[in-house]
Amino acid sequence: MTTIRQRRVGKSTEAAEDQPSEETNVKPDGKIPPDPPGGKLWNILSITVGGIVAISLGLLTSVYVATLHENDLWFSNIKEVEREISFRTECGLYYSYYKQMIQAASIQQGLHGLVYDNKTESVRTINILERMNVYQEVFLSILYRILPIQQYLEPVYFYIYTLFGLQAVYVIALYVTSWLLSGTWLSGLLAACWYITNRVDTTRVEFTIPLRENWALPFFAVQIAAITYLLRTHLQPARERLTLMAVFIATFLFSLTWQFNQFMMLIQALALFILDCLDMIPTAKVTWLYIIQISALLLVCVLQFFNSMILGSLIISFNVSVIIARIIQKNLKKGGLPNRLGKLILHVLLVLCLTLLINKFVKKILNLESDEHIFKFLKAKFGFGATRDFDANLYLCEEAFGLLPLNTFSRLSSTLLFYIYGFVLFLLTVAAVIVAFRNLSGSNQVQFKEEMEEYTVTLKPDAAYSLVHTVLFGCLALSTMRMKYLWTSHMCVFASFGLCSAELWKLLLKCLHLYTAQRTQVLKYSIPLITLLYISFKFWPGIMDELSELREFYDPDTVELMNWIKSNTPNTAVFAGSMQLLAGVKLCTGRTLTNHPHYEDKNLRERTKQIYQIYAKRSPGDVHGILRSFGTDYVILEDSICYERRHSRGCRLRDLLDVANGHIMDGLGENEPDLKPSSYPRFCEEIKKNLPSYTMHFTRVFQNKTFHVYKLAKHK
Q1: Would the N or C end of the chain have less CB density within 10 A of its end CB?
Q2: Backbone torsions φ then ψ of 401, nearest 5 degrees
Q3: 143, 178, 208 - which closes a domain
C-alpha cells in the first residue's frame, strides 16, 4: 500500500462596477449610448486591475497545488520508480502513454505504437487513440520533444507543471465567470478565494495529477465563462461570433480530454432545454449551443477513429431531437398559460421519444454495448431492482460513486460558502419561478410600463443559466460523490456572484421595503469585503501550516515488486492481477497486461471479471486455464484484496465474485437463498499452502509483505 509519512530531514476596496452585468440605458432605437470620457477611463483602469488580480490568483493557485504535491511526496528527491508509482491506478496508465511517446525513437514510431498497441491488452491489438482520451499526452510529448528544454526539465516535471498550470486557467475562468455575472471583479476575487480555501472539495489535482478530469475541467470552466458572456443582451454581432468560436474551442478541448464528456454535456443541454422552454434565454443562441456541442463531439469522434461510444451517446441523440422537435412545433411560444403548458408537455414528450428512438436506432446499427455498464449501475443505484451484475456492483460498492457525504457540507459551511450559496439559490429560485410563470402567461409585455418597474422581478439570461446549471450539477454531485468537483467549483462562482449582485440586493431590499440605491451599493461591496476578511483571518494560518508540513512518499513493497519485475522477467512477459496494480506495472516496467482500469469497453470488462477469478472460489485448473487463455505468464496476488477489510461484507471484491458465480459469501451474515457453497476453497488463500494441485500449475517466484507473484506452467 502507498502511504505518506513524515519526511526525514537530511486593503483596498473596489469602488465601481467595471464590467456591467447587463447593458443599460438602451435608446429606443436599440443602440447603447457611449460612456462619458471619465467613465470609460475608469472602466479601463478597473478592468486592468481586475485582470491583474485574476492572473495573479490563478498563478498563486498553480504554485500552491504544486507546492502541496512536492511537500506531500518529496517528489524532487524520490527515485523515478517511486515517482511513477505515485501516479496511482488509471493515472499511471495514462501517464505511461506519455512516457511511451517520449521514449519512442521518433514521433511517427510513437504514434504507430499507440495506434497498433499490443501491450495494454494481451493477445489483442487495440488503438489507444480510439479507446482512450490520451491526445493530451500525445500533444505534450511532441511539445517536449520539439522544444529545447530537455536539458533543463525532466519529462515528468514538464507533464505535472502543465497540469498545475491548467489550474491557473481554471481559477481565472471561474473568476471571469463570476465577474461577468455580477459586474464587479470583487465577485471574482471572492470566487477564487473560496475555491482555494475549499480545496479539499473543489479539486484533487495535487494527488491525482493525470486524471482526465484535471485536464478537462479547466476547459469546461472556460466554456461556461464564454456561454455566460454569450447570453448577455445587446451583444454586438462580431463579439457574438467570436464568443461562439470560443465556446466551440473550449467544448472541443473538454470533449477531447475526458471520456465522461458526453454525460456532462447532456446535463448542460438539459439546462439549456429547460431555460428555452421557459423562454428565459434566446432560442437562437440555444440552437447555436446545441450545434456546437454536436460539432465538437463529432470532431472528437473523427480524431478518435470514429469511436462508436460517441456516436451512440445520448447527448447527440438529445440535441438532434430538440432541433427536430423545434422545427415540428413552430408556434411553441404563442398563446396563453393553458395553451403554452399543453404545448410544452407535448414538446417534452416528443423530445424524449425522439431521443430514445434515435439513440436505440444508432446503437442497434453500431452494435454498441460499451456504455451498458453505466446504465446498469444507474438502474441499480436509483432502486430500479437489485442486480448481481459484477460491473454494476463494482461501481456501487466504491465510495466515489456513492452519495455525497454529509461532512462535505460542514466543510463548505466553515468558509460560509454553503450558507451564502443556499441564500443566493433560494432568492434566485423564487425570482426564476416568478419570471417563468410570467413568461408562460404571456404577461411580460405589461411589465415594461415605467410605473410598474418597481414591482417587476427580472432574471438575466446568464444568471438564469447559472441557476439551472448549478441545480442540475448539484443533483449529480449529491447522487455521485466523484462528480462533486463539477458542482463545488461552480458553487464558488454562484455564491460570489449573488453576494456581489446589485439586482439581488435590490430584490431583497424591495421585499423588505428598505430599498434605496445607496443601501444597495453599500451592501454589494461591504458584505463581500467582510466575507473576504473573515476567510483570510480564519484560513490563512491553516494554509501556511499546510505549506510548511513536509512528508515523503513511502511504499517499499511496491517499489520492490517493480524492481523485481524489471530485473527478473523478460520484456515480453504478460502479467495478470488487479486493474489498479497493473496500470503501475505497465508504467514502471513496460510489461504486457491482461487488463487495466480504463473500463469503457465490454470485452475488457468481461476479461477483467475472468482475471479476477484469482480471488474467487475456483479450482486451480480453472484459474490456470483462464489466465493462460489471455497469454498470462505471471499473476500477482495482493493480500489487501484477498483479505480485504476496507469494504463491508457484500462489497468486498471476493463477495462480488462469489455472488456473480452463484456462491455464498464468507463470514457471518445473510445470503440470498439460491446461492450455494462452492466446491473449492478461495484460490488466493489456498495457493499459498503449496499443495500439489496448485504447484503443478503455479510456481511462486516472488513474495513480500504485500504481494505474491506466481509463474504459470505452460502445459501443452
Answers
A1: C
A2: -105, 10
A3: 143
Total structural domains within the chain = 3
Distance (Å, whole) CA 172 – CA 59: 9
How crowded is residue 167: how many other Cβ atoms within 10 Å of its Cβ?
24
C-alpha cell at 340: 403554452
What is the span of the domain harbouring residue 119?
87-143
Give CA–CA dist 227/235, Å, rounded: 12
170 close to 221: Cβ distance less than 8 angstroms: yes
Confirm if 69 and 106 have CB atoms less than 8 A apart. Answer: no
Is the overall model pTM greater than 0.85, yes or no?
yes
What's the start-to-end Cα distance of the chain, in Å?
A: 37
Average pLDDT, 10 consecutive residues per value, the chain (716 residues): 51 39 42 60 90 96 96 94 94 96 96 96 95 96 95 95 97 97 95 96 94 96 97 92 97 96 95 94 95 97 93 95 90 82 92 95 86 73 73 85 92 95 95 91 50 61 96 95 94 96 89 88 93 93 91 94 96 96 96 92 91 95 96 96 88 92 88 89 94 95 96 83
Tell me the β-bridge partners of 635.
576, 710
Contact 231, 285 (CB under 8 A): yes
Q: Which residues contact 575 (CB under 8 A, 6 or more apart)?
A: 565, 582, 585, 591, 592, 593, 594, 632, 633, 634, 635, 636
Residue 495 and residue 382 in one domain? yes
DSSP one-letter code for 5: E
Same domain, 566 and 526: no
Query: 228, 465 in Cβ contact below 8 A?
Result: yes
Among residues 71, 105, 486, the alpha carbon closest in space to that of 263 is found at 486
Question: Residue holding cell 404545448?
Answer: 343
Q: Which three cell numbers stand for residue 99?
A: 512516457
Say whether both 535 and 622 belong to one domain. Answer: no
Q: How many residues does the chain have?
A: 716
DSSP for residue 676: B
Q: Cβ(678)–Cβ(661) under 8 Å?
A: yes
Q: Is residue 513 part of a domain?
A: yes
Where a domain ends, among 521, 548, 575?
Answer: 548
Q: CB under 8 Å to 159, separation ≥6 — which residues?
A: 95, 98, 140, 209, 210
Q: Are residues 535 and 574 in the same domain?
A: no
Which residues 6+ apart lie within 8 Å of 278 measured at CB?
435, 436, 439, 440
CB 561 within 8 A of CB 707: yes
Other beta carbons less than 10 A from residue 62's beta carbon: 21
Both 472 and 617 in one domain: the answer is no
R_g over Cα of the chain = 28
Confirm whether 148 is domain-assigned.
no
- As a whole number of angstroms, the distance between CA 534 and CA 287 comes to 43
